[in-house]
Amino acid sequence: MTPLLEVDNVSAAYGAVQALTDVSLRVMPGEIVTLIGANGAGKSTLLMTICGAPVPRAGRIRLAGEDITGEKTHLTMRRGVAQSPEGRRIFPRMTVYENLLMGAQALTTGDPGPQLEQVFTLFPRMKERLAQRGGTLSGGEQQMLAIGRALMSKPRLLLLDEPSLGLAPLVVRQIFGAIRQLNESTGLTVLLVEQNANQALRLAHRGYVLVNGRITMEGGGHELLARPEIRDAYLGGG
Ligand code: ATP
C-alpha cells in the first residue's frame, strides 16, 4: 500500500541552524502516528516543512505517492492536508462560527454544512459557543476550535502540533479521545507531534522519537511507551 505521507531523508535549516537532519517517516492511510520530542527537537519544523516552508535542503516529501516537496502551502492544503498549528492561532476577535468558516476556504465542495456537523458531533461545546469570540474561549475550547477549523477543509491528512500544550490532563484526555473517535469513525489519517509522550503514544498506532532533528527510534505506540529510555526521558507529562 502507498503511504499517505512519506518523508524521505529530509533535512531543513534556518540559516546556519540545522533543524532537521535526514528525517524519514511514513504515515499509512487510516493511521494515527505520533512524533515525540523535547523542546526544540524540530517537531514544528517538520510539520511546517511538510506544508512547504521551510523548503527542505535535501530529501523528498510525498503525499499519496505524489511529490509535494517545497510546494506552496495553499496548494498542499488543496490536496487535503490541514494543520492545527502550535499555539492554536485562532482568530481572537472572530466568533467561533467565523473561525470555523475560515477553515472551510480550501473546501472544494463549497457547502460547509456537513463539516460543521462533524465538528459539532466531535466537540458539542463548539455548537454551544458559536457566537462567542474566539479570544474569550478557555484554552481547551480554543484547542477544540483550532482542530475544528482544520477539519472544516475535509482533510485526508490532519497535522496536529502539540494539542495538549498548557491544558489540564482531563481536557487533554477529552481532546485525544475526540481524535481517536474521529480516526475510528472516518478513518482520518493523523500525524500528531507532542511533548506529552504518555497520552500521545497511547493514542498512536505507531510513533517516532525526534532528538536534535534526527529520528532516533520508531515502533508501535504502546511498544515505545514500554521502553525504559522513553519512560526516563519523556514521561511525566501526565
Ligand atoms: P517546541 O516544542 O519548543 O516548539 P520543536 O520540537 O517544535 O520545539 P522547532 O520549533 O521545530 O522545535 O525548532 C527546531 C530548531 O529550529 C530549534 O533549535 C529552533 O530554535 C530553531 N528554529 C525554529 N524556528 C526558527 C526560525 N524561524 N529561525 C531560526 N531558527 C529557528
Structure description:
- The chain is of the alpha/beta class and 238 residues long.
- 37% of the residues lie in helices and 26% in strands.
- It contains 10 helices and 10 strands.
- It has a 6-stranded mixed sheet, with helices on both faces. A 4-stranded antiparallel sheet has the order 2-1-4-5, with helices on one face.
- Helix 3 packs parallel to helix 6.
- The protein is globular.
- Adenosine-5'-triphosphate (ATP) is lined by residues 14, 17, 19, 37, 39-45, 86, 195.
Spell out the blueprint of helices and strands.
Blueprint: E1 5-14, E2 17-27, E3 32-36, H1 43-50, E4 58-63, E5 66-67, H2 73-78, E6 81-84, H3 96-103, H4 113-122, H5 124-128, H6 139-151, E7 157-161, H7 169-186, E8 189-194, H8 197-203, E9 206-211, E10 214-220, H9 221-226, H10 228-234
Parallel strand pairs: 3-8, 3-9, 6-7, 7-8
Antiparallel strand pairs: 1-2, 1-4, 4-5, 9-10
Helix pairs in contact: 3-6
The structure holds adenosine-5'-triphosphate.
